[in-house]
Amino acid sequence: MRRSQPRRRTSPWGDARRRRSILHALPKTDLHVHLDGSIRPATLFELAKDQRVKLEVKNEADLGRFLARLTAGVSLPTYLKAFDLTLAILQEPEALERVAFELAEDAHLENVRYMEVRYCPALHLKKDLDLHGTVDAVLGGLSEAGRRYGIQTGTIICGIRHLSPKLSLELADLAVAYAGRGVVGFDLAGAEKDYPAKAHREAFDRVLRNNVNVTVHAGEAFAPGSIRQALHYCGAHRIGHGTRLGEDPKTLDYVNDHRIPLEMCLTSNVQTQATPSFEEHPFHDYLKRGVRVTLNTDNRLVSSTTMTDELDRAVATFDLDPIDVRQVLLNGFKSAFVPYAEKGNLLRHAVLEIDQELKRSEIATTESERDLL
Ligand SMILES: [Zn+2]
Fold this sequence. Notes:
By secondary structure, this protein is of the alpha/beta class. It has helices spanning 16-25, 41-50, 60-71, 76-80, 82-87, 93-109, 131-149, 165-177, 201-209, 225-232, 249-257, 266-271, 283-289, 307-318, 322-334, 340-360, and strands at 28-34, 112-119, 152-160, 183-189, 213-218, 238-241, 262-264, 293-295.
């Protein structure tokens, strides 16, 4: 008797090229992207030339090698060294405005409909800029992209863990001053180990009392205690990365029960060894448990990635089906720091666009009850 061949499952996406083109066309968000890590290579060199700044790399090939060295399975502090290079040319308002505009333009070109750009204003004061000047410049660039392309953006002001809590408080005041005028949240970034978030508690108290949204980088380079601090000392409404959340099942339940979004960044996490490989990244496990996971770029230049790359990597690595992808994309829109009514609009448009795009690509989806929560 002939043994029947096991039935080979065909991918609903088709081949890799078709899959990528569908994912490119789908409406996306990017909620976790650092301005100073997301400069076009050509712009970096042009700005260095205009400003007569001598960079430690000479050309794009050099830059590629330099970044590859700093991102090849390294620690977070090594990865962060790449920012010395970019910050050298981000000390003038015109440069900040241009880089913000181009970041939003690049996002628009791959169908990102909503993006939150974050940076620490205190790292841009080496020439004549003051804190307010940095915010005005970035908001100028982003709103120009909004006018031209319709992409909706917000900015998040970052405190830095290893800088003084007093400075974080000043930055918190800055976020409060610009709340409702383009700034949508406050964050704490930088090296996690040895620099606990709770040292900056006063800054978080200040923003929370003024109804500003909070997200905190946590659970990226350090154990889940860091996530508990972000949640319970800093009042985080979202968690930046949260990669190591699974090490603490009770906190994972808390995050899930309270629908606290995780801003996950697969490529950056593998580069900084927050997880050993894409395959071992807990993203899919969290998604299956119902955690509100979102995909983000972190740093387009430093991590050499785009939103389409991140989504494509997730689909290829975890064999995500169209319903999973729909869920991840909607999680992004649901997690945006925008007022409720505005979020309703964003979501309605996203649902329509996703379903139209999948239908156009002849991919059938059925309503998933996971969409409800
Ligand atoms: Zn980050």
